Amino acid sequence: MKTKQKTVRISIIGFGYVGNGVAEVIRRKREAIASKYGIDLKVVGIADLKGVIADEQGLSEEAIQALKAGKNQGDMTGLELIRDIEHEVMVETTPTNVETGEPGLTHIITALDSGRHVVTSNKGPIARDYRMLMDLAAKRGRELKFEASVGGAMPIISLVQDNLAGNDVTSIKGILNGTCNYILTRMADENLPYEHVLKEAQEIGIAETDPTKDVEGVDTAVKLVILANSVFGMNATYKDVTVKGITEITLDALKLADDAGYVIKLIGDVDSDGRLEVAPRLVPKDDPLNVCGTLNVATIKTDLAGEITVIGKGAGPIEAASTVLSDIIGLYS
Amino acid sequence: MKVSMSIELKDIPGQLVLALQPISDFGGNIRSVVHHRDKKTPSGRIPLQLVLEIEDRNLSVLVERLKERGVNVVRIGEERLMDSMVVLLIGHIVHSDIRETIDSIDSTGFAEVVELSLSMPGVDLKSSASVTISAVGTEELKDALAILEAAAEKKGIMVIASI
Question: Is residue A223 annotated as a catalytic residue, yes or no?
């Protein structure tokens, strides 16, 4: 236990599922984190389309609830919050835009320029402008952490950078999209056609109303780009990825795969030779990559440690927020 | 070509080197050596199972050389189609002439389509097929897959390969 407390003031920009989750895990874990790591986490500002609230002493639960209900809108903008309210860490959890990276990109640049560390779950800016953002962070002497942008609760980037330090990673392949995995698992288990399972997934909130980014493999490809750049030191963009989605997968194909001892999974595959590919692949039933439902999984191949496989929940507000929280704590320990 | 060979060695020191040296002398590449010490022959020799790659024309001279050295060559067999993989195809497989696609692999001489299961749900619907390809080695198997992928791409057929 550490006795000296350091106060860490946090802003949350983008108050959707993940942003809410971050506020929730900080509320739940604040005391435990203070006693274990000696840091007192304090949310001092939240910005969302509904409005912006700030309090340098720490936001009250009432103020947060009022923002969620659409009341109590301040007249400050999100960028003003990032720039003008004193705080240490900006948590960026706005929705991903693969093409422009916005609005996350501007938020991150502004935060680094204002001397804040940045922790984000937003794939867009990291996939699109990784090198520029890392250079900026280095120039400002701040850190940019983005573990939550790949694989939700499943640790890959910190696993490679910290625990597997000293290893050369030769490839990473895995299931990085829970929606596709859910659809393929349901189709195979229940013998239901693609369209049917997709509708079902939309009804229970596993697939979005516009599922294109998930089922066409775009989401997996963007995560692969982040891994390529952060783990393999490439300077890749989305255009460098060969992408095939799961929309063409037939029930017959799943049955034929089953007969031959395989399952079909949407696999993202990146290796040190610069190959970046997203495609449905046959996975032997006894391979560790054969995980079901919405789970994510990745097998990291290294020169010294051999193959390491991690499995975890790829989505969910609390799960993703747990990764953001780990990144925040990582800044101070 | 890939050859499997069963030989028998005397149970005295230096016999393994005696048997393997000529293989490298003739430019052969040893892929596998299994020593059956537990299965001694009645004459007290030790059986050895070898898999090697060697030029066709060098094989008979190699066997001669081994015999000269006192190595019993019990059996020689050309080992074909060592590796295989399953690949799925989805698309208008039959309409786009799957025969031609299979021929393109069979005609390589190093790979063959050894099994094909086809599922055709309806005339206008896409069919699915599982294809088992065997080849003489891992590299050849990769080449065969590349041939299949190129043919499939031309015909708008999706290929699902193994990880």
Answer: yes
Quote the tokens at residue B148. Answer: 């299949």
Q: Is A203 left (phi over 0), alpha (psi -120 to 50) or beta?
A: alpha
The domains of chain B, with CATH numbers, are 2-78 (3.30.70.260), 83-160 (3.30.70.260)
Burial (CB < 10 A; 0-12, 13-18, 19+), residue B100, is exposed
pLDDT digits (tens, 9 = 90+) for A92-142: 999 999 899 999 999 999 999 999 999 999 999 999 999 999 999 999 999
Q: To the nearest whole angstrom, how far is the Cα of A17 from the nearest Cα of chain B?
A: 34
Q: Which residue of the set A223, A265, A301, A313 is catalytic?
A: A223
Dump pLDDT digits (tens) for A1-30.
545 789 999 999 999 999 999 999 999 999
A256 vs B119, B121, B162: nearest CB: B119
Q: Which residues of chain A are within 8 Å of residue B162 when distances are taken between CB atoms?
A: 262, 281-284
Shortest CA distance from B88: residue in chain A:
A253
pLDDT in tens, B72-108: 998 887 766 678 999 999 999 888 888 888 898 988 8
Longest dimension (CA), chain B: 70
Q: Most A CBs within 10 Å: which of B92, B128, B153, as the mutation test of the A interface?
A: B128
| ipTM topping 0.85 | no
Q: Each residue of A261-298: b (16+ CB within 10 Å) or e?
A: ebbbbbbbbbbbeeebbbbbbbbeeebbbbbeebbbbb
A91 has pLDDT over 90: yes
Put simply, the answer to whether B117 touches A280 (Cβ < 8 Å) is no
Q: Which residue ranges form the domains of chain A, and what is each CATH number?
A: 6-153+317-331 (3.40.50.720), 158-313 (3.30.360.10)
